[in-house]
Design a protein that fits this description.
- With 469 residues, the protein is α/β, with parallel strands linked by helices.
- Helices cover 40% and strands 14% of the residues.
- The chain is built from 16 helices and 15 strands.
- The protein has helices at residues 3-11, 26-29, 42-47, 65-79, 90-93, 103-118, 134-138, 146-162, 175-183, 195-216, 237-260, 265-270, 282-286, 348-361, 388-406, 449-462; strands at 19-23, 83-87, 122-128, 168-172, 221-226, 229-232, 292-296, 300-304, 331-332, 367-371, 380-381, 384-385, 411-417, 436-438, 445-447.
- The protein has an 8-stranded parallel β-barrel with strand order 1-2-3-4-5-7-10-13, surrounded by 6 helices. Strands 6-8-9 form a 3-stranded mixed beta sheet. The protein has a two-stranded antiparallel sheet with strand order 11-12.
- Strand 14 and strand 15 (445-447) form a beta hairpin.
- The protein starts with a helix and ends in a 7-residue tail after the last helix.
């Protein structure tokens, strides 16, 4: 190891007890979609609809984690992870989304959690990462208020079964994506383009979070949001308004609801249609006390109210509408930063901004970075992947985490996205985010250089003992 590398890793040391993790989601890795009683999800249906997924891919096998979880936990242990964030497949637990529970599904997550604990890895369980049971979608999906109550029942079932196996539960992963990519733009399942129903869906996803927190009782529970730093392209009135709008719908609509128990008035005014779906008591439920805020961060938005830019933050692989309900006129422009293979600008400074903002503007809440990562066009050469761009991305964002901690942000952990290459939603298998390379034909796993570097950073931190002062 060079002196420079030693100094870099020493400089990335974090407080004792900092959670070093990686994250995945059930639909993207498990496969086994028709095994052991699992029901059909909206993503199973979506991937079978022509034109929805790049190259017609599906996740029927994905990376076969359902059968290879012991091997994958061994990989985590070799990397030195102290925590692993995974999601539970709702249709694997309740095939129709309500009613009868599939014990084989619960048993799988018990085995996974116990395997993790046996290797000294703390399981962080996410209840929902977008795989709604198809039967609930057939009844209206998230725009149907009843689905939020079905989710609470599901949360109580999972919690009761796994409360002795899992330390931290979180509710809904990135409700913005589930609502606005699923029901406004149609880029994600179920592929609907119904802007007003997307708003209803967003509220019911927030309500589902609060109901689930109540249903799980006093166990350590968190909510999860995907946050972006938002910058106006210029200081013109139009661009400043564009930034207000996008920040409102992406960030404040969810943060204000979860942490303050209200929606921003300016955001509600931006939205079309009647806001008649918020019932008395809803906001108090959504504002149920949580123990930790999970923050997913990837990039910054630079926006303009003038025509001529892209209508979404990055190109979609298939034909889609706009997810920006009520602000479809806003365009996204280059901020002049390098981009990943997803077309997302690399801006670690934005991570410091969003963390400091939450710490400044909201009641005190411990935070973790629950997703952060990058896709690049990896090349396997002589059994190695020299992904220097991904390594630099992770290093820069860990530096941002450390800067935020030093500024007083109560940040308690970092989860890289993703542990392994997997099914990347509408992009199929065309984009790779993993620290670990997966050959999708043979299922062979290979550590990328970024994984080896991350492992050494973790090792340096974990052996660091705090000194008395």
């Amino acid at each position: 190891m060079t002196t420079q590398e030693e100094q870099t890793r020493a400089g990335l040391r974090f407080p004792a007890g900092f959670a070093w993790g990686a994250a995945t989601s059930a639909y993207q890795i498990e496969g086994a979609v028709a095994e052991d009683g699992r029901g059909v999800s909206i993503w199973d249906t979506f991937t079978r609809t022509p034109g929805r997924i790049l190259n017609g891919h599906n996740a029927d096998v994905a990376i076969d984690h359902y059968h290879r979880y012991r091997e994958d936990v061994g990989i985590m242990a070799e990397l030195g992870l102290s925590a692993y964030r995974f999601s539970v497949s709702w249709p694997r637990i309740q095939p129709t989304g309500s009613g009868k529970v599939n014990q084989k599904g619960l048993d799988f997550y018990k085995r996974l959690s116990d395997e993790l604990r046996g290797h000294g890895i703390d399981p962080w369980l996410t209840l929902y990462h977008w795989d709604l049971p198809q039967e609930l979608e057939d009844k209206g999906g998230w725009p149907n208020r009843d689905v939020a109550y079905c989710f609470a029942d599901y949360a109580a079932t999972v919690h009761e079964a796994l409360k002795d196996h899992v330390h931290t539960f979180s509710t809904v992963n990135e409700p913005w994506c589930a609502a606005f990519l699923g029901y406004a733009s149609g880029e994600h399942a179920p592929g609907r383009r119904e802007p007003e129903n997307a708003i209803r869906g967003a509220h019911h996803l927030n309500l589902a979070h609060g109901l689930a927190v109540q249903a799980m009782g006093a166990r350590r529970v968190g909510g999860c949001v995907n946050l972006y730093a938002v910058t106006p392209a210029t200081d013109s009135v139009e661009d400043l308004d564009a930034a207000r709008r996008i920040d409102g719908l992406q960030n404040r609509f969810f943060l204000d609801a979860l942490l303050l128990g209200r929606y921003p008035e300016d955001v509600l005014e931006d939205l079309p249609g009647e806001i008649d779906f918020i019932q008395p008591g809803d906001m108090k439920i959504i504002n149920a006390p949580i123990d930790v805020l999970l923050v997913n961060y990837y990039s910054r938005f630079t926006v303009s109210g003038a025509p001529g830019g892209r209508q979404s933050a990055a190109a979609a692989p298939t034909d889609t509408g706009s997810p920006w309900v009520g602000s479809e006129h806003v365009s996204f422009v280059s901020g002049g930063q390098p981009v990943t293979a997803m077309g997302w600008e690399i801006d670690e400074g934005g991570l410091v901004e969003v963390l400091q903002r939450v710490a400044r503007d909201y009641p005190p809440i411990p935070m973790v970075i629950s997703e952060n990562g990058s896709a690049f066009d990896d090349v396997l050469e002589d059994g190695r992947i020299h992904d220097n761009e991904r390594r630099a991305y992770v290093e820069a964002h860990l530096g941002a985490c450390k800067e935020a901690i030093e500024a007083g942000v109560p940040l308690e952990g970092y989860f890289a996205w993703s542990l392994m290459d997997n099914f990347e939603w509408a992009w199929g298998y065309g984009k790779r985010f993993g620290l670990v390379h997966v050959d999708f034909e043979t299922q062979e796993r290979v550590f990328k250089d970024s994984a080896l570097w991350y492992s050494e950073v973790i090792r340096q931190n974990r052996r660091h003992e705090p000194t008395d002062s």
